[in-house]
Amino acid sequence: MTRMLILTRHAKSSWGDLSLDDHDRPLNKRGRKSAPAIAAWLRANNWLPDEVLSSTSARTHETWDLMKLRAEKVSFHRTLYHADPEDILHELSGATGKTVLLLGHNPGIGAFANRIVRQKPDHPRFLDYPTCATTVIRFDTTDWAKVRWKSGAVQGFVIPRELLG
Questions:
Q1: 55: which of 31, 43, 64, 89 lies 20 to 30 Å off by Cα?
Q2: Number of other residues whose CB lies within 10 A of the CB of residue 41
Q3: Helix (H) or strand (E) holding 74
């Protein structure tokens, strides 16, 4: 039995209103196109979450909403807002779904992606993990609490620019 992790950085956010706190920044026009494109890629590959763990920020909420995917369990965690890799692993360890979509922020989510996989995908943007970058990772376990660094096998990696042309 396996578990699948869909690791997604929030879509591109707006810097238009400088009076907004970072936590409250919405997506920009490009971000509002990227989230549905990533969701379509996930659907096309039949990688659909049954659980979502997300940061509480406005841009992660909006990314999830625009993906228009369904999950049995959706939860928002303040600890995932600008979380470091250890905090992300801790939040993931409490998951119960078979396929978990985790929505977060850089630099933590990119660092987490680099540490959690056995072999990095041969992609020039994996290391910097741009907005809405998404990695699908398989783990040979039935218990998220047993996931360790360098234990995941990459099933797919994409950035929105590849999908939108």
A1: 43
A2: 17
A3: strand 73-77
Checking DSSP bridges between strand 153-158 and strand 134-139, what pairing results, if any? antiparallel
For the segment 27-41, what is each residue's pLDDT rounded down to a tens digit?
Answer: 999 999 999 999 999
CA distances from 107 to 33, 97, 155 (A): 22, 25, 22
Q: Is 50 helix (H, G, I), strand (E, B) or coil?
A: coil
Can you tell me the distance from the alpha carbon of 63 to that of 102, in angstroms, rounded to the nearest whole number? 11
**H/E stretch holding 114:** helix 108-116
143 contacts: CB under 8 Å, gap ≥ 6: 3
CB 3, CB 116: distance < 8 Å: no
Residue length, the chain?
165
Q: At what angle do helices 85-93 and 108-116 cross, to 10 degrees?
A: 70
Q: Please report which confidence band the pLDDT of residue 14 belongs to, taking 50, 70 and 90 as the band edges.
A: confident
